[in-house]
């Protein structure tokens, strides 16, 4: 039998050689289809490396996402929570005004509204002094024509005569359409006078000021005079009738000023007197005993806008709660729903101002065993006030937490020297200075963080 192994080997070799040679054939197409390339060694070949284009312009890369700036708070500090939206009614405008203070052609003004907690310039006196020491300024700011606390307010000597006083706290006869920011209005008799004398004994920058204004409305003509520095100079004014708020202003080195109504008729209504700087910081104390803050909703819109025109504010502080918190009430929505209207109204009247809501502080009451503890309604009210700030997109400062929280007013009463009264509700001037220091430090830290945020976003 003939051996065919050799023939088979050569035949297999011929087939393999043919298949290998087919790898070098050009790509064939039949009927529009591309035939696969014959590659007997495909499993042995290394994977092909795709060439990476060196031209970076051929690939559009996504933009680098810059992480958001994260605000921080110092350990032990209760920082301001800013709930501002796109309208920027939180603290930004005020911080910007402080930065621009040296070049502004007017003072940076703060209107500080509150109840008896700040009565007599408690807290605001020391806050004013700290801000004026840092940014310049002098004088006590806005003072209503008459005041029930004139005798114990240590920041200005305030005397007056010839006025008929009307207050929002009057039981009868108060016309809400006539009130100003302090919830008052005053009818003068001819010869009515009000005197302010700077007192530099309590705080710095109060002994003298640079400008004084007298605010009034008179439908008919009115004559006024300003007697400066106990008669060293007298300036006379004559105003035609106008239904809008007007202001008579004198500028000098003023240590005392007496404003007199020399002649008027029954249409004149007067409001307040100021001792102000020409630049720097002004802090106006608008305290109303027994107020919940809702009374501000009764100030006529034309009056609010007139004050914005004549006395532009950069920061409006609202500090209320003592006359709202109750032993047994835990739901304060009835209160905050009304305050939403008040805040939105003020925002409309003062469109450039920053707004800061300061919560109620600690307030004590006795439990069934006679032991003092924080009034239960206080903690609930603080939460509702914070929600109020968030709802109206303004800033919030938790005074209760800053004071030390539970039982902190007791510690202030028992401190040596004493910083709060035995009603375990109201602070005294020492306590006011302590809280003013906390607020001042918080404001300065907030300003620092604001500037860091701006610098970061502009990088």
Task: Explain how this protein is built.
With 459 residues, the protein is α+β, with helices and mostly antiparallel strands. The chain has two domains: 74-137 and 282-459, SGNH hydrolase (Rossmann fold, 3-Layer(aba) Sandwich); 147-278, Jelly Rolls. The protein has nine helices and 19 strands. A six-stranded mixed sheet has the order 3-19-16-15-4-14, with helices on both faces. Strand 17 (364-366) and strand 18 form a beta hairpin. The longest helix has 29 residues, at 429-457. The radius of gyration is 37 Å and the shape is elongated. The protein starts with a helix and ends with a helix. The model has no long low-confidence stretch (mean pLDDT 91).
SSE diagram, text form:
Blueprint: H1 5-22, E1 29-30, E2 33-34, E3 81-82, H2 92-99, E4 108-114, H3 124-135, E5 141-144, E6 156-167, E7 184-198, E8 209-218, E9 222-228, E10 233-239, E11 242-254, E12 256-263, E13 269-275, E14 281-287, H4 301-310, E15 315-319, H5 333-349, E16 354-358, E17 364-366, E18 372-374, H6 376-392, E19 395-397, H7 399-403, H8 408-414, H9 429-457
Parallel strand pairs: 4-14, 4-15, 15-16, 16-19
Antiparallel strand pairs: 1-2, 3-19, 5-13, 6-7, 7-12, 8-11, 8-13, 9-10, 9-12, 17-18
Helix pairs in contact: 2-9, 3-9, 5-6
